[in-house]
Amino acid sequence: MLSAVLFDMDGLLVDSETLSYEIFRELAAEKGFQLTREQYCTLIGQSQDVCTQKLDRLLPGCDGADLYRKFHPLFFQAIQSGRLQLKPGALELLDACEARGIKKAVVSSNLESYVRNHLNVTGVADRFDAIVHDGMAAQAKPAPDLFLKGAQLLGVQNPADCLVLEDSYAGVRAGHAAGMRVIVVPDMIEPNEEILSMCLCRANNLHEVAGMLDSL
């Protein structure tokens, strides 16, 4: 029985990862460092604290914390200028869930300010029954804590009654560890065999997920 759909946010619900990478790459270049797409992809789906530490290792001497301090205002400026959009099929999937009485939550490793701002800017904040962000559980993804918190807030006792939608390795691992069903919808990262083995399937977009609801 499918009782709830738990949506990751960045790269799954909203098209934010490419925009984030462009800004981080420009900031790193200003400091004389090259941040590759492959390096950035190792950060996707994880908390800012973890990403800061990874940036320090990926770009020795660059200061990941300073990059984030400069990134935040530039990213919010880009969002306010209209550069943040919902991913294809997002509204269709939300409509499909509501038509079937399926509960919905956003479960993100991002900061609360980002999560609420992204949902407000894209006009879907009031479409979710619960919002989970970094700091609401003991550990962020790839630990299962945030997804389990989402199920708790939705009143779903059996994790297997939840469907997790994720684009990142960390998110897929978190949903799988929570005992939930997972569909991976790739964004910047292609799933490898290990990641696919943790998923019901791969979907190319959220339109496809909407078409699967009745079979789950």
Give an overview in words.
With 216 residues, the chain is of the alpha/beta class. The protein has two domains: 4-15 and 85-215, HAD superfamily/HAD-like (Rossmann fold); 17-83. It is 47% helix and 11% strand. The protein has ten helices and six strands; from the N terminus they run βαααααβαβαβαβαβα. It has a six-stranded parallel β-sheet, with helices on both faces. α6 links the parallel β2 and β3 (130-132). It is globular, with a radius of gyration of 17 Å. The N and C termini lie close together (7 Å).
- State the separation between the terminal residues, measured CA to CA: 7 Å
Could you name the CATH topology of the largest domain? Rossmann fold
Q: How helical, in percent, are the residues? A: 40-55%
Shape: globular
Report a brief summary of the structure:
The protein contains 10 helices and 6 strands.
